[in-house]
Design goal:
By secondary structure, this protein is an alpha+beta fold. It has a single domain, classed as HIT-like (HIT family, subunit A), CATH 3.30.428. The chain is about 20% helix and about 25% strand. The chain is built from two helices and five strands, in the order αβββαββ. It starts with 5 loop residues before the first helix and ends in a 9-residue tail after the last strand. The mean pLDDT is about 95.
Length: about 120
């Protein structure tokens, strides 16, 4: 775990966050700068810099992140109307923290194309 990684520090409990889910693979928190009425970050407990570094050994982890997103969407009341899962990769992709995470946005209509 890189000691300077913000999300590693949140996952480990070193830094406080509005945590709404935690299991052996995934921690979910509310985004501190929400871009929709529901904006949740699904964080990998394992430090992986981005989805660009996900390998075959991480297949179960990626599936677990999606499963947790579906569970939280139901719990948050956004599963019926829909929601968006966003993974930013690299600076041009909008990634600001080098730690694998997925944004779940819902509670309002989403425009296309994003960005």
């Amino acid at each position: 775990m890189p000691s300077d990684c913000l999300f590693c520090r949140i996952v480990s409990g070193e830094l406080p966050a509005a945590q709404i889910h935690a299991d052996e693979s995934v921690v979910a928190i509310r985004d501190i700068s929400p871009q929709a009425p529901t904006h949740i970050l699904l964080l990998s407990r394992k430090h992986i810099a981005s989805v660009g570094e996900v390998g075959p050994a991480d297949t179960d982890l990626m599936g677990r992140i999606c499963a947790v997103a579906a569970e939280l969407a139901t719990r948050e009341g956004i599963s019926q109307d829909g929601y968006r899962l966003v993974v930013n990769v690299g600076r041009n992709g909008g990634q600001t923290v080098d730690h694998l995470h997925v944004h779940m946005l819902g509670g309002r209509p989403m425009a296309w194309p994003p960005g």
